[in-house]
Design brief:
Helices cover 73% and strands 0% of the residues. The protein contains 14 helices and no strands. InterPro entries: AA_transpt_TM.
Length: 426
């Protein structure tokens, strides 16, 4: 894939359900939310580039890291931190990608229920989960991102169109909202908001997979930076327009706050198409990893179809079990994406720099790499960069812990409980 196509994959995957929840985050946190979203976008870009650089060094040192690898993030963690690192990354990756996929299915089902009601058909979201999963399952049979590159352009195009229409609707509805008031913030709202922002920029689990399919992997830095810039330019207008026009009247999903009409239903239809494409992109690393574990061939076979269909059925069951997406976003963001996006990139990069320096200085061979000392390590990574990395590491640990705790408290509160679809379909 070219840097442009890779950037489209990054932006198309990032601008998913996070786009719909960011305006409410701004209202819960206040103007500080705008600062936080820019800050975390910069940090996520930096750690994304760092992760790709770590993999590039690993490919230079280890033979089994060269060529196409189905589970690059897990393999990188194993090379730098052994089996503990590999299993920890795998656990976080599965939690993050499964949680995100479930959230996308739930949002899509809610959107389709809204559209069907508009046309006079009362089809509950629980039924739509089944229909949506059935429709996307054949599309998950594509192998790797390079096999469905057109989805990336479709995801970005539909998101950009939605942003324009949402901003227009907010501007047109502004005269009907004369007295805009904002929610009083508190520590729990701030921590939940940080978790959802982390969720919004949580694509690090996919970055090494995209890097595998690039024609020139050395162009990854341009692709990552471009992808995050595109995403930020789509996030900020949506966030500002909803925050300024509706204030505390915003719902968790901005779509439910917009005035109903032809333009509204067009937005719902287009964002549903986008979320469907983003879902297929998002879940791909899990599909590849499971196939690797089951020794399923990389070429297209019936085994791939069966395997990926079973995984889709499991996602459907989880979606029906947890039919609310806002709490899922905060928990997944705090528990998984803080690890994958801010903690492990720093740890893997630091250790990989040590391994790479030892390899280049011929202190040892690739089969038994001896770590260089801390004094020598300071010469490998500049002091300013090491300090920045430790700051990001501390921020990731703190934000991940506090956000996960707040999300669990929110999920366990009585007013957030909802029955699974297989118990209460309506």
């Amino acid at each position: 894939m070219s840097p442009t196509t890779t950037a489209m994959f990054i932006a198309g995957t990032l601008a998913g359900s996070g786009l719909l929840s960011l305006p409410k985050i701004a209202d819960n946190i206040g103007w500080m939310g705008l600062v936080l979203i820019v800050l975390f976008a910069i940090l996520a870009t930096y750690t994304g580039v760092m992760l790709c650089e770590a993999w590039k060094m690993a490919a230079d040192v280890f033979e089994d890291c060269r060529g196409h690898v189905q589970n690059p993030y897990q393999l990188l963690a194993q090379k730098t931190h052994g089996k503990v690192g590999r299993y920890t990354v795998s656990t976080c990756l599965y939690i993050g990608l499964v949680g995100s996929s479930v959230a996308l299915i739930v949002v899509n089902a809610d959107n389709m229920e809204t559209l069907s009601n508009a046309f006079g058909y009362e089809i509950y979201s629980c039924y739509w989960m089944l229909i949506i999963t059935g429709c996307i399952t054949p599309l998950t049979w594509f192998g790797t991102p390079k096999d469905f590159w057109w989805m990336a352009y479709g995801a970005v195009s539909t998101t950009a169109l939605c942003v324009v229409m949402i901003v227009i609707m907010c501007v047109l509805d502004a005269p009907n909202q004369p007295n805009v008031q904002h929610t009083d913030t508190d520590i729990q709202k701030i921590t939940l908001g940080i978790g959802m922002i982390m969720y919004g920029f949580g694509i690090h689990s996919n970055l090494p997979t995209f890097q595998m399919d690039m024609k020139r992997p050395m162009d990854y830095k341009l692709a990552v930076i471009s992808g995050y810039i595109i995403t930020l330019f789509m996030f900020l207008p949506t966030m500002l327009s909803g925050f300024l026009v509706y204030g505390k009247n915003l719902d968790d999903n901005i779509l439910t706050s917009l005035p109903h009409g032809a333009l509204y239903y067009t937005v719902v239809a287009v964002i549903t198409l986008h979320l469907t494409l983003a879902l297929i992109i998002f879940v791909n690393p899990i599909l590849q990893d499971v196939e690797l574990l089951l020794h399923i061939p990389t070429e297209f076979t019936w085994k791939r179809c069966v395997c990926r269909s079973v995984i889709a059925a499991c996602l459907l069951f989880l979606s029906a079990t947890i039919p609310k997406f806002n709490s899922i976003q905060s928990l997944v963001g705090g528990l998984s994406f803080s690890m994958l996006g801010y903690i492990f990139p720093v740890l893997c990069y630091k250790k990989m720099c040590q391994i790479y320096a030892a390899f280049n200085s011929q202190m040892t061979n690739t089969d038994s790499l001896k770590m260089i000392s801390w004094k020598e390590h300071k010469r490998v990574i500049p002091l300013w960069k090491a300090m920045l990395n430790y700051g990001i590491l501390g921020l990731g640990v703190l934000a991940g812990f506090v956000t996960s705790l707040s999300a669990i408290i929110s999920i366990l509160s009585p007013d957030s409980f909802s029955l699974p679809c297989y118990i209460n379909i309506g």
